[in-house]
Amino acid sequence: MVDVMLMQSLLKAVPDHAALLIVGDIDQLPSVGPGQVLADIIGSGAVPVVRLTEVFRQAAESKIITTAHAINAGRMPDLTSPDGETDFYFVAAADPEQAVARIVELVSKRIPRRFGFNPIRDIQVLCPMNRGGVGARSLNIELQAVLNPAGEKKVERFGWTFAPGDTGNATPLTIWSGRSSCISPRRPERDQSSPRSSPHSSHVCVRSFLVRGC
């Protein structure tokens, strides 16, 4: 996830007598900034490279991990329905409209009913993009309508509706990368124009809630 400019600054700061060990995953999403630093360093052949390819016993019990390794190796993963409980389930959908309906059903009904999870506090939906019928923006709207419909106490900003109970990450408060917070109502004496929070309150300014594009 390191871009060219950040890597340049790092290398300029490292003294000549120091050794630099780079650990990363070339299969993760590219950096936001320009460049694919890790992939290019590996592809150059200029530095020694060690690849970790062994799946240990504990990890092999996770179908998420074995499925990811199969896809990485160019093999079709096993998508059949499991006999018992597992950490990976494949749900097919013919088109984006059907996919949205099934995601909403999974989050609001099927997963909570089977595993006893709270659909707002315990479940996160990850998607690869913000736009599109199955993107984060569309899914946020559909899931909010089912799980936490906005009532009178709400804030509308930049095409988004924020209401008490919505969850998500907030970059200004360093709430991101899998961590989430919940919007709570402001006290009457507070300014009602924004859900932005102070370091001592539980009110958060949410960039994207319920669903995060990864």
Structure description:
It is built from six helices and seven strands, in the order H-H-H-H-H-E-H-E-E-E-E-E-E. It has helices spanning 4-13, 37-44, 57-60, 63-72, 96-115, 136-147; strands at residues 125-127, 155-157, 160-162, 167-169, 181-182, 208-209, 211-213. Helix 5 packs across helix 6 (136-147). The two termini are 12 Å apart.
Beta-strand content? 5-15%
Structural class: alpha+beta
Q: Determine Rg (CA atoms, Å).
A: 21 Å
The secondary-structure element order is: HHHHHEHEEEEEE
The profile of the biggest β sheet is: 3 strands, antiparallel
Q: Give the termini separation.
A: 12 Å
If helices are DSSP runs of H or I spanning 4 or more residues, what is the number of helices? 6
Q: What's the overall average pLDDT, rounded?
A: 75
Helix content: 25-40%
What is this entry, summarized?
The chain is an alpha+beta fold and 214 residues long. Helix content is 30%, strand content 9%. A hairpin with a 2-residue loop joins β2 and β3.
Feature tags:
alpha+beta, 30% helix, 214 residues, 6 helices, two-stranded parallel sheet, disordered C terminus, three-stranded antiparallel sheet
Question: Layout of helices and strands, plus pairs?
Answer:
Layout (H helix, E strand, L loop, with lengths): L3 H10 L23 H8 L12 H4 L2 H10 L23 H20 L9 E3 L8 H12 L7 E3 L2 E3 L4 E3 L11 E2 L25 E2 L1 E3 L1
Helix pairs in contact: 5-6
